[in-house]
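Data availability excerpt. The first of two example chains:
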Amino acid sequence: MSITVLIAEDDSDMRLVIKKVVEEIEGVEVIGEAGDGLAAIKLIEELAPQVVFVDIDIPGKNGVELAQEIFDINPWIFIVFATAFSEYRSEAFDVYAFDYLVKPFKLNRLRQTMERIKAVAEGKLAGKQVPGLSQNTVGLKKTCLFKINNEFVYLELDGIIFITKEARKTIIYHKEGVFKTNESLSSLEKQLQGYQFFRSHKGFIVNLNMVKKVTRYSRDSFEIAMSHTDKKPLLTWENAKKLGIVTNSKI
């Protein structure tokens, strides 16, 4: 399995350092480099990398803003900040950064981050697994009306696996297929309120009845193994606390 990387950094020497270090890891390939935020977004949409290294002080678009836009394109992209500005750490994790490296960082620290990403992507992360979420079918109605491609379509709610954002569209993963809509995640969250759906993460709504298990993903998040799909929605630490599967102590 090849892990693809894009580097969004205006310093060409730093791009070279990051590229050299990450490509020393077997199965990792840098497929694109960008010296400004606008070029980075264009390349991300064209190349669909799995990992993006982002500098905070990148021309054309603030690094945090860039990360927010990356997240809207694909919430599964691993975002790693590599920056000289330590004060943006909180904002970085607010947009679900996988890691935050402060320059000058040790090269081994960069290798460790990339190795951890590779382990997560390959499903080999050795971490503590927490029990599956409680499953309660109370209140789950049979169907709901969704606007799909300018048409209104009834979907069986118990067939919805999860809902997310991809390529600036809202995507409904269902046992009967994948459905795209222009409705926002927030509007669908309101529509499904009171039923067995949970906003696990800024980029995901999950059907709790489809959850199989939850495992540690990054510093502040988990990934959820779901029935009927290999895709794994994300769960933030705060939302994991709401579900009662973790305490305030990090594991």
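And the second chain:
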Amino acid sequence: MKQSKLHTHSDEALMVLVMDHHAHAALEELHRRYSKRLLGYFIKMLNKDVDLAQDFVQDLFLKIMEKKHLYDPNKKFYSWVFAIASNQCKTAYRHFGKTIELHPEQHDQVKLDESAFEKKQFLADLQLAIDQLEHIHKEVFVLRFLEHFSLQEIAEITDVQVGTVKSRLFNATKKVAEQLKRYNPKHEGNLFKMN
């Protein structure tokens, strides 16, 4: 199949080509679609270590080739690929105790009526609050509020029930909001919406 036609295929159809025909062009198209987003995810989860994040992206696409037989074409490709990414981060946390860092531009949706200095301080405090979360809480927080996955998608990625995702998000947002309440106490519960 010509690479020029592959851009019209769904992610799932491309993965079927990879599974059935070892189609490198299909894998390259998936890489084109997902490598930047996965790199961003890994950078957030791996303490802004760009080199390590790039290694993780490469490893992930090798894992796709190695584990292609495990993919279920009836499921969304992005959930499967982010589940692999999530597992890579879990392994990194176990071995290296990595923490995430937040970039100010990722939080421009937080509307505060304070000076630029106070906003910068808010973002630093937000980063600190998230860094202090346990990995299971940090993972769902990043997937939800930075990667913008739905609760159902996070459940598929992390291989837990939606109720568990909600519980972890509730605990994470409660802890983060508690540490940020001095910025806008009356709205602390609204800083991070789960729905």
